[in-house]
Design brief:
single chain; mainly alpha; 4 helices
Length: 111
């Protein structure tokens, strides 16, 4: 069986950062989480400087976390091990999603 790395094309560092940034930015779960948090912490009388500081803090923490995960996962031994089991992870994830879809299809409405 061939490695997953043989089937992927390398991308530039800028393209990888852009892709990760857009993925995080467009993730609705993350957006709703921060919307819920910020509506509790920010009031109409909160100074603009504090609002900007909250936002920049979130962006900074998110960037550092994602960078650390990328460095860790791309380390040689970890990447090779992940590539070896990625096929099975994808199949297991697919099976779980199919099972959830079937369960949803046969669920009765409570209304």
């Amino acid at each position: 069986m061939s490695s997953r790395a043989e089937h992927t094309l390398p991308i530039s560092s800028f393209a990888a950062i852009r892709s990760g940034f857009l993925t995080s930015l467009l993730n609705t779960k993350v957006t709703l989480l921060f919307l819920a948090l910020f509506t509790q912490a920010i009031r109409p009388e909160t100074p603009l400087f504090a609002e900007a500081l909250y936002g920049l803090t979130v962006v900074g923490i998110e960037f550092v976390w994602c960078a650390l995960v990328a460095v860790f996962v791309s380390a040689g031994p970890i990447k090779r091990r992940f590539d070896a089991v990625a096929h099975w992870i994808e199949h297991a994830t697919g099976a779980v999603l199919i099972a959830l879809g079937i369960r949803l299809a046969f669920a009765r409405s409570s209304a």
